[in-house]
Write a structure and sequence with these properties.
This protein is an alpha/beta fold. It folds into three domains: 5-70, SH3 type barrels (Roll); 92-298, 3-Layer(aba) Sandwich (Rossmann fold); 306-418, Rossmann fold (3-Layer(aba) Sandwich). It has helices spanning 5-14, 119-125, 129-132, 150-165, 180-190, 213-224, 318-325, 346-354, 376-383, 394-407, 411-418; strands spanning 21-26, 29-36, 46-51, 56-60, 65-70, 92-97, 104-107, 112-115, 134-139, 170-174, 191-192, 197-200, 231-236, 244-248, 252-254, 263-265, 272-275, 278-281, 297-298, 306-310, 330-335, 359-363, 387-388. α4 crosses α5 (180-190), α5 (180-190) packs parallel to α10 and α7 runs parallel beside α8 (346-354).
């Protein structure tokens, strides 16, 4: 049991255990639900109940009383193997889990949530998956997405390639939402794929009535059966459970901490709308890689010594020098407006140029194009050797720098690759029509 200290004494003195249905009263308010275990790093003053509404509530045990309503079992997920015959008329879709909310399943007897590691887990919790495809599931990681790193991008890309080589008609990646757009961008650069690869997640877990996990997963399966053979990202398009958008993996960003429609395409339209099991292109003229137009190919060499630096008022010049001295091989500068930074950084940027360390300029403005030719500061920055990131998102530029430096250390070739549109990361032109779409 994860409880300790005051909470453990409270539970022991009340004779209640994890899995019991209990009534806790504190300050005149009563809460009834299933007693759940705690996380690995809780304080010792609170217990957690699963309410009938599906939400969890933490209750301070100080001055609280407990009443046992019904004995229950310790929450655990039963792993009974499923005997499901493969349907030859349906595509084979692989679901690869790296962790995150969307890859969890709920035990409806106890309300406990568990990470899903197998296809059986996913199908047991989401039987509707079988309407669309034969499902093969595996977990390669079980991490919070803030713990994602370039080495894990490589592991994910290789796992995708293995699934495709073994006959998968499409691949869905279950991922935590916080860094999902970094991973979708990285996979675009690392992987040439003949089938759709769809990254998805969930803002709210499967035990909550407002969970977006099921709809995002089903919509991603629909996208994985489509003709769009790129690495894309699929999430809710609205707060309601109406439809999902399929975003280009290099043009998407998380914009809200909790909203279910947090992911938006930036400087671009979404590729497709997925509604009631049907996929429809948002713009019929949009260009995309089509299914089976090439073989699977990996370019997974990366250079992790890349810095992403945000310019701000009063930024010290030695922040650039610090990264150079630490052996940084490339720098992404998130500048202001059209791509500016303080004049006091210019000598350090010139040093980076002299030492063949590429620096690319992006903008803190999500929309629009970097243009350092407009003002004198920008022209000084260009003279210092800084490369324009055009309309690339800062996160995408960071990922592209990590990938580019893994392909070559020739500075002129690096500059050329950074300003070449490889996976839809650079728009042909900047248009105001995309603003806040």
């Amino acid at each position: 049991m994860g409880y300790k200290g005051s909470s453990r004494k409270f539970l022991d003195s009340s004779g209640i255990s994890i899995g019991d249905i209990v009534k806790i009263t504190r300050n005149g308010t009563s809460y009834q639900g299933i007693l759940l275990d705690r996380a690995e790093d809780p304080d010792d003053k609170h217990i957690v109940l699963k309410l009938k509404s599906g939400y969890n509530v933490g209750i301070d045990v100080v001055d609280a009383t407990a009443e046992l309503v019904q004995r229950g079992d310790i929450p655990k997920l039963e792993h009974h193997p499923l005997n499901i015959k493969k349907d030859a008329d349906k595509p084979d879709i692989s679901i690869i889990s790296t962790g995150g909310t969307v890859a969890s399943v709920i035990d409806y007897k106890t309300g406990a949530v568990h990470p899903a590691f197998t296809a059986d887990d996913l199908i047991r919790s989401n039987p509707e998956l079988l309407i669309h495809a034969n499902i093969n599931g595996k977990a390669i990681l079980n991490i919070l997405s803030e713990n994602m790193k370039p080495a894990y991008w490589v592991k994910t890309a290789r796992a995708i390639a293995d699934e495709i080589n073994e006959g998968a008609d499409g691949v869905v990646i279950a991922h935590g939402t916080d860094t999902m757009h970094y991973t979708s961008a990285a996979l675009n650069f690392m992987l040439d794929t003949p089938v759709p690869v769809v990254v998805t997640g969930a803002q709210r877990s499967s035990d909550r009535p407002s969970s977006d996990a099921f709809m995002n997963l089903i919509s991603s399966l629909v996208a994985a059966k489509s003709d769009i053979a790129e690495v894309t990202l699929c999430m809710h398009a609205e707060e309601d459970d109406s439809y999902c958008y399929l975003h280009r993996g290099t043009k998407v960003r998380k914009l809200h901490t909790t909203r279910r429609d947090t992911f938006r395409s930036i400087n671009a339209l979404p590729l497709a709308k997925i509604e009631k099991g049907n996929l429809k292109l948002v713009d019929k003229k949009v260009q995309y890689k089509k299914r089976n137009s090439n073989n699977v190919h990996l370019r997974d060499e990366l250079e992790e010594e890349v810095a992403l630096i945000k310019s701000y008022p009063g930024i010290p010049a030695d922040i650039i020098d610090y990264h150079i001295d630490k052996g940084c091989k490339g720098i992404v500068l998130e500048g202001t407006g059209l791509g500016h930074c303080s004049d006091n950084l210019i000598p350090s940027l010139e040093r980076a140029k002299d030492e063949d360390i590429p620096v690319i300029m992006t903008s803190q403005c999500f929309y629009g194009l970097v243009d350092m030719n407009v003002y004198s500061t920008g022209r000084k920055i260009i003279s210092a050797g800084v490369i324009s990131g055009l309309d690339m998102l800062p996160e995408t530029a960071y990922v592209k720098m990590v990938w580019t430096l893994g392909q070559t250390d020739n500075i002129e070739e690096v500059k050329k690759i950074l300003q070449t549109n490889i996976a839809g990361e650079i728009g042909e032109k900047s248009s105001e029509k995309f603003f806040l779409n």
